[in-house]
Amino acid sequence: MIPSINPLVLNLKESATLSINMMVKRLRKEGKDVCHFGFGQAPFPVAGIIQEALRANAHHNTYLPTEGLPELREAVSHFYRKEFDLDFNPDDVFIGPGSKELIFQTSYLLEGSLLVPAPSWVSYGPQATIRGKRLYPIETSRDNAYKLTAIDLDRACHHMGQQQKMLILNNPNNPTGAVYREDELEEIAQICRAYKMIVISDEIYAMIDFTGRKHASLANHYPEGTIVSGGLSKSFAAGGYRLGVMLIPEELMSIKCALRSVISETFSAVSSPIQYAAVAAYSRFDEIRDEIQLNTDICRYASGYLHRRFLEMGLNCPEPAGAFYLFPDFENYAEKLRQKGILTGIKLTEDLLSSKGVAFLPGSDFYFPATNLGVRVAAVDFDGAAVRDAWPGADNMDEALNRRLFPRLVEGCDRLSDYLEALD
Ligand SMILES: Cc1ncc(COP(=O)(O)O)c(C=O)c1O
Description:
Blueprint: H1 7-10, H2 16-29, E1 35-36, H3 48-56, H4 70-84, E2 93-96, H5 99-109, E3 113-118, H6 124-130, E4 135-139, H7 150-158, E5 165-170, H8 182-194, E6 198-202, E7 226-231, E8 244-247, H9 253-264, H10 272-283, H11 285-312, E9 325-326, H12 334-339, H13 345-356, E10 358-359, E11 361-362, E12 375-378, H14 384-390, H15 399-405, H16 407-422
Parallel strand pairs: 1-10, 3-4, 3-5, 5-6, 6-7
Antiparallel strand pairs: 2-8, 7-8, 9-12, 11-12
Helix pairs in contact: 3-10, 4-10, 5-6, 7-8, 15-16
Bound molecules: pyridoxal-5'-phosphate (PLP).
The site of pyridoxal-5'-phosphate has 13 residues, from helix 5.
């Protein structure tokens, strides 16, 4: 029997990030020594108070309300007000099994096309495809750290005609590590307002910010049209808990009503014990603030180390300012790679994995053309608990400690450097 499949999902492949993770796990199981720069998972343990709350609430076995546990919605609203000056009431908060699902459902229920900066996170495009939405990637420039500008957004909207427009802006950014400033967001907000755009501001990395500035959210500049998403996966290091949050402003009441219905007809509600654990994360944040800041300091160091090494190798790479990622490109080696028969990012990443055991994702997974030689690097292949225990502070690190605390990052860079030297 050959079942006939919905044509909108027929050509969909497994998510690039999840599939490289599985491939690396398989290679490692076969005994291959892989430096894994392909998957962006928080490398730290979940904070003790969150784990304790999960254990203490294991007996909760009833379905919770569709939008989420009332105490959790209250805690999330309070947290976003206190930490980010964002004005959302508990009624504006929705809880889902990861922000990925909430972004999908919101995009699913909205008409119109989807705009994303290129490069952008791997899943926005396929999610739009599942819904039959047209995707408009807006190319950004390396010189501007791959950040969307108001001028480019305006130009893209201008070509789209009257249809409803939706934008997803991720800040801090996966795949580039870029962080937007308030003035940049204000300019983008003016264009969003002019086109009455609906924006999802994906702020899942909001607390992993190396700039020392207060986190800037588009919702502070365009509150009437900005939906904010976040959750436990990155800053709280609990991706496997699968708990995401979405904050939808009062002005977008029709989206709130539709989302409530879609949730009630799909996942019903997130697992009860996980929601109780999340109450601890959001309502007792002061107790884990220092721990989360330390995790961020370590991520900053790890990303900074890779950045320095990439520049030394002659790669182009904007300086990472947040999240777990860097986006170097191999354009300076384009001619030598061409002589080796490598003309696309996919070929390049395949060659690096098979010949050197170093895993990256190609720029084409992030809406760049196939010939783009940019790659996404996740800077988290280290044991966060061990690094935390031995952490002497960034100023006291030296090459020997780099090798001891971040062996896979150092080894991956050494292998990459060998690969590039052998091209000569
Ligand atoms: C930019 C971005 N948005 C959203 C997500 C989804 O996070 P979750 O579904 O775990 O909340 C991720 C996860 O990798 C991400 O990198």
